[in-house]
Amino acid sequence: xxxxxxxxxxxxxxxxxxxxxxxxxxxxxxxxxxxxxxxxxxxxxxxxxxxxxxxxxxxxxxxxxxxxxxxxxxxxxxxxxxxxxxxxxxxxxxxxxxxxxxxxxxxxxxxxxxxxxxxxxxxxxxxxxxxxxxxxxxxxxxxxxxxx
Length: 148
Hints:
- By secondary structure, the protein is an alpha+beta fold.
- The chain has helices at 23-27, 50-64, 91-94, 138-146, and strands spanning 9-14, 17-22, 31-35, 71-72, 82-84, 99-102, 108-112, 118-122, 126-128.
- It starts with 8 loop residues before the first strand and ends with a helix.
């Protein structure tokens, strides 16, 4: 795989886990990852392989320095629904939501994008949604959240 590092992102490979981090989020002190294709990693529950899915979350969280027990991930259906969360939810508890937002520190918010790339982020007064809401870009979303 060619290195995707550029002026906006940095590519990492820690313990065999390939992922990107956005420089703007690093500059704000936000722990986050956008996973890349990695052998043995599958963030989608398919075919009943819960062990692989759980191990995939653990490997990415360990690489980034996040606590896997704090992960909340919705059942995504490609809607425009966003839910504010204040605790860890199981997918069955949170329902069909495509975006998460929180003001609680240490929550790890996750989505699985349409192209099967996993994304997570953790920070007080911040959001997770890389399936962008309308035409709003991550930089604009960050500015809106940080101004609150």
